[in-house]
């Protein structure tokens, strides 16, 4: 989630220009065992362990937004971290965790968060292998540390970013802008109820449990026809599609008639004048599959209670994203900002107006 407890905005992850200038050129020694190093838009890196074995690695902040309650927030933090390595196609196996807690954090609060990480790791068969825990001046919620997740497995099972090719079909799970809608309904419940009604706002809040791509990725990776996967997170579906297109070097053509936004989420985005395609959507997964294989993947995901749609295909071109519909084709550019921030600001303003009335 992209807001502090006080509602202030944060910059989020580095943009393309910063990455190209200050990250990509400074990656240390280029070792022969590095199969995939830092790439803009890639969720993970890969190291060869020899003998056909590899290790996928991802690192993320521990982002615990207390508005959701410590246990729910810690659950979301854990799955944000492990989701980025699960999209490699390998099952997450290990995690190292660094907790940098404010001095005001009570032992009981720390215990709640650490116990959630333990329980979720145990469910996935992961070991917490290393880390650091301490209380520090200047530390504050929601950014209370960082963690690195590992997935060890066979090299032949890895789905490298950029492996999609022309003709592959593009699927999406769950739908766009869910994370943004959930954030608004938790942080500004009165505004949400006013805008879309109590029942719809409650339905959106209940989607909190879907804000993880771990199960989606593990189910999808069971099909050999899956060529790549990508988590839809900051700046939403439009950003994720542009990242996928750049990584594979081909165009992505999106069907503008695909039902990519759940109905109550679409209603809330409309009421807040948000473009759902540029809103944070952690929990939604993009999957590319070889031509003719999408129906099989949709059925497999559905059998596990995960809804998915075919939203487009990989086409020839130089890495752009296009939406088709009503006989027209238009380019979908990478958003410069996240609709989540705008949505929270609009909802906060509405509640202030309600208080003043």
What does this structure look like?
By secondary structure, the chain is an alpha+beta fold. The two termini are 30 Å apart. It folds into 2 domains: 16-157, 2-Layer Sandwich (60s Ribosomal Protein L30, Chain: A); 169-356, Phosphoribosyl-aminoimidazole Synthetase, Chain A, domain 2 (Alpha-Beta Complex), CATH 3.90.650. A 7-stranded mixed beta sheet has the order 8-10-7-11-9-12-13. It has a 6-stranded mixed beta sheet with strand order 1-2-3-6-4-5, covered by helices on one side. The protein has 11 helices and 13 strands. It has helices spanning 16-23, 70-86, 107-124, 178-187, 189-196, 198-205, 214-220, 236-248, 263-271, 294-303, 339-356, and strands at 34-36, 45-50, 53-63, 94-101, 127-135, 143-154, 169-173, 226-232, 251-255, 284-289, 308-315, 321-325, 328-331.
Can you summarize this structure?
With 357 residues, this protein is of the alpha+beta class. It contains eleven helices and 13 strands. A hairpin with a 2-residue loop joins strand 2 and strand 3.
What does the main sheet amount to? 7 strands, mixed
End-to-end Cα distance, whole Å, is: 30 Å
- The tally of beta strands, per DSSP, is 13
Q: Poorly predicted ranges (pLDDT <50, ≥5 residues)?
A: 1-10
Question: Per CATH, what is the topology of the largest domain?
Answer: Phosphoribosyl-aminoimidazole Synthetase, Chain A, domain 2
Instruction: Report mean pLDDT, rounded to a whole number.
Output: 94
Query: Biggest sheet, strands in spatial order?
Result: 8-10-7-11-9-12-13
CATH superfamily of the largest domain: PurM-like C-terminal domain
Shape category: globular
Number of helical stretches of at least 4 residues: 11
The total number of structural domains is 2
What is the element string, with H for helices and E for strands? HEEEHEHEEEHHHHEHEHEHEEEH
The top-level CATH class of the largest domain is: Alpha Beta
Radius of gyration, in Å, reads 20 Å
Portion in strands: 15-25%
Q: Which structural category do the helix and sheet elements fall into?
A: alpha+beta
The CATH architecture designation of the largest domain is Alpha-Beta Complex
**Helix-residue proportion:** 25-40%
